[in-house]
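Tutorial, part two.
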Amino acid sequence: MNFHTRRISRRSLFKTGAALAVAAAVPLLPREAAVQRPQNVEDAGTLERVWRQNGAPNQSILLKGGTVVSMDPKVGDFVKGDVLIQGKKITAVAAELKAPPQAQVIDASNTIVIPGFVDAHRHSWEGQLRRIIPNGAINAYMATTHQGFARHYRPHDMYVGNLITALGCIDAGITCIIDNSHNSRTPAHSDAAIQALFDSGIRGVHASGAPQAGDWDKQWPQDLGRLQKQFFASDDQLVTLRMFSGLNRESFAFARRLGLRITTESNGGSQVMTEFFTAKLLGPDNTYNHCNGWSDDVWKQVRDSGGTVNVCARSDPQYGLGEGIPAFQKALDHGVRPAFSIDNETSYGTDMFTEMRVAFNIQRAMATYRKANGDTNAPPIVSVRDVLECATVSGAANAGLPGKCGTLTPGKEADIVMIRTDDINLYPSNHAIGTVVAAADVRNIDTVIIGGKVRKFRGKLVGINMEKFRQLADESRNYLFGKAGYKLDIFSS
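Running the prediction step on this input gives:
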């Protein structure tokens, strides 16, 4: 397959980058979506003016008459309720609220209003490689990504990969991701990945990591200090910084000198984990991905040290990691409520709904199997609310942002998803949380709000020029395929 190639210079890419970074759109309804797009933008016109337009800091939005699932026991749930947003924060959640003067009122009837999903572990830079190895196991993944295309990424390709991933997340109701960025070949590669997160409007945690193969500048981890000063002088922004590192004492110490949290891929490694625990190197600033093959002792050590964990319901079976079974039940057995993570899109899609359902059904299958075979210690089966909590509350904890997102709580920032229940696949809806966890899919995402800004409205991303987006993605993908000598075969085995 041939693609039209259009070169986009990195200079052009970043020429007006700062303007897009923190300029989130005014909560926009369709009447406002016709604002003319400026001609000179660094993303080649993918993000229209409506996406980046600054809004009044005290702009109010009232979500009116939806079924509200707050995930906060103190706030409760409402069969029919309202959510009031002022600026970037939720100010009230109640059965009925009066719209402030000049507030934008969004009719939320026939929708379920939930906190935005949090993906606790995503290699966002791989966005151009969606479903390139749908049958792949771990060797195919490593050969395709780290040992293959990763070596040819320009800073521009880092930008495009992260933008593809972030916009796809927003479309799917994922309002926050932890971006595990292990292809930081030069400082410019890191800058580009971070800029894309800012531009996308997603709440992102950029976890900077070292490349796994090929040549690179060896600027990591020391470059984290520059990144922190250049992009993260304020904590009051949608994108934040952390380290992505294996169990390395020097790296951990460096991150902690900068006050950064640490994310670690972890499959097995019980002896080293125990050594780190004994040396008091594991703490509440640690987040662990996968968590397969851990001994009972390691689970207790992570729990006792206050670390957070996320499990990969699809990734571990797909790539044959560890035992091949997601560590969901293991976490529950040890009193740990894990988050969920999609990991990457090289084999499957951006879909927290599927992630929740796979975890839900595997756990119930294992619990039932153990009970049926005489296990007197068989675990109880999980509920749909348990699973939704993992996809929201626990995700926020993994991101180090429990005070900002994860629940619909007054005072937290407004990361909110509205799910349409009068669509053909959901109507009639007889159980709100059951509808979200067991039946809904991406087509039912009606509205997505991040930090008080409407990013998707009535089923469509606001201010995205899809023709330009496809051109941006095609140029980057075509370049990488050419450099790697890869010939696309969409029916490859």
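Residues 1-41 have pLDDT under 50 and may be disordered. In part three we will examine how such features are distributed along the chain.
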